[in-house]
Amino acid sequence: MTTVPRYTLNNGVTLPVIGLGVFQTPPAETTSAVDTALRQGYRHIDTAAAYLNEREVGEGLRRSEIPREEVFVETKVWVSDYGTNETLHAFEKASAKLGLDQIDLLILHQPAVGIFERTIAAYKALEKLYADGRVRAIGISNFTPTSLPRLLGAVDTIPAVNQIEVHPYFAQRATQAANAAAGILTQAWSPIGGITFYGGLFGGPSRSTLNDPVLREIAAAHGKTPAQIMLRWHIQQGRQVIPKSTNPARIAENLDVFDVTLREDELARIDALDTGTGGGPDQDQPQPQFLQFQIPEA
Ligand code: NDP
User: Fold this and answer.
1) Range of the domain at 115
2) How far apart (Å, rounded) are the C-alpha atoms in residues 65 and 62?
3) Considering 30, 142, 256, 288, which has the largest number of Cβ atoms within 10 A of its Cβ?
4) What is the pTM of this model?
5) Rounded Cα gap, residues 149 and 280, in angstroms
6) Distance of CA 156 from the midpoint of ligand 1 (Å)
7) 64 belongs to a structural domain
8) How many domains does the structure of the chain reveal?
């Protein structure tokens, strides 16, 4: 079984360099995916209230019989739960669904720029949960070089992580630099470019990162797959990764990346694939439609 190296967050808490993502993992497949991953050596699961599978993540954790303290569980508060009391209640919902008294990392899913005062209130609620020991670390997701300084100017606790879209076609270097300058770990979502193919946003499968000629060439040279090469690229550049899969062979493949090291010129060739365009929504624009989606009670 693979033992995964760890990063140390800015409050001293550690987490594995690779975790399992469960966005779009149907609830009926989530328990099995989490159990499979934990048995293979994963020790970090990234879910969210909005993925509607926190309950099944908790079931997978219990089914694996891995001691609770060995697994790092991360979840996200959805924007319709932003506000002081709303976010404190969002923790209670997540805690009950996961079946966990304490959550390792609780983050804001995205900035709600149209109602930024509620985003700040939500983050202050995370600070209270942290002070009360209900969560071991707090953070953010999808914050930009515009929204990050607005948050940092209004709160006391530097986020431990900022989880953002990063893959070879969208490097977000300015956001990565802003994270690093503040001591925030960048977590890469869609680390193997899932959004470049499941969303069809880059022109369908032929423009998928998995079919990229440069990545395929580097992969062939190392006897690895393009997905494994992308994960190495992230890790060698200091990003934490959370590839999603429900397929046991691909769950294993995504953890089998510790016997290869990319050269500087190979890292540079992957860096050069950046298109400057991402697949997610513009996080500097208000997204009122997201506020319509309500997170069910536990
Ligand atoms: P990924 O880059 O992880 O790609 C996932 C896709 O790739 C799935 O279609 C999966 O299918 C497939 N896949 C997985 N492993 C392999 C492999 N080795 N070879 C070929 N195909 C593979 O994209 P995600 O967008 O899912 O991002 C990962 C995680 O990041 C999410 O699950 C979630 O936890 C988080 N996330 C956070 C967001 C945010 O706003 N904070 C937004 C989006 C994601 P299959 O399951 O069939 O293997």
Assistant:
1) 11-277
2) 5
3) 30
4) 0.98
5) 21
6) 33
7) yes
8) 1
Distance CA 225, CA 234 (A): 15
* Residue 6 within any structural domain of the chain: no
Q: Name the residue with the closest Cα to ligand 1, atom 24.
A: 190
Is pLDDT of 197 > 90?
no
- β-pairing, 185-189 vs 240-241, is parallel
pLDDT of residue 2: 81
Cα angle 121, 241, 24 (rounded to 5 degrees) comes to 75
The minimum-distance atom of ligand 1 relative to the CA of 33 is 46
- Residue 67 contacts by C-beta under 8 Å, 6 or more apart in sequence? none
Does 184 reside within a domain? yes
Which one of 75, 144, 192 would you pick to mutate in the ligand 1 pocket, going by the greatest count of ligand atoms within 8 A of its CB? 192
Is position 288 within any domain? no
Which of 280, 270, 141, 281 is CA-nearest to residue 209?
Answer: 270
> Would you place residue 207 in the very low, low, confident or very high pLDDT band (cuts 50, 70, 90)?
confident
Which atom from ligand 1 is nearest to the alpha carbon of 251? 15
Question: Per the structure block, which two tokens stand in for 93?
Answer: 């919902």
Q: What is the tens place of the pLDDT at every residue in 119-171?
A: 999 999 999 999 999 999 999 999 999 999 999 999 999 999 999 999 999 99
Name every protein residue with a CB atom under 6 angstroms from any ligand 1 atom.
21-23, 46, 141-142, 163, 189-195, 198, 210, 225, 227, 242-247, 250, 253-254
Q: What is the pLDDT of residue 202?
A: 52
Between 95-99, 119-123, 151-155, 277-281, the lowest mean confidence (pLDDT) is in 277-281
CATH number at residue 86: 3.20.20.100
Q: What distance in Å separates the CA atoms of residue 15 and residue 77, rounded to the nearest whole number?
A: 20
Give catalytic residue positions: 51
Ligand 1 test: best mutation among 189, 233, 283, 293, most atoms within 8 Å of CB? 189
Overall average pLDDT of the 203-210 stretch: 70
Residue nearest atom 14 of ligand 1, based on CA coordinates: 245
Say if residues 169 and 273 touch (Cβ distance below 8 Å): yes
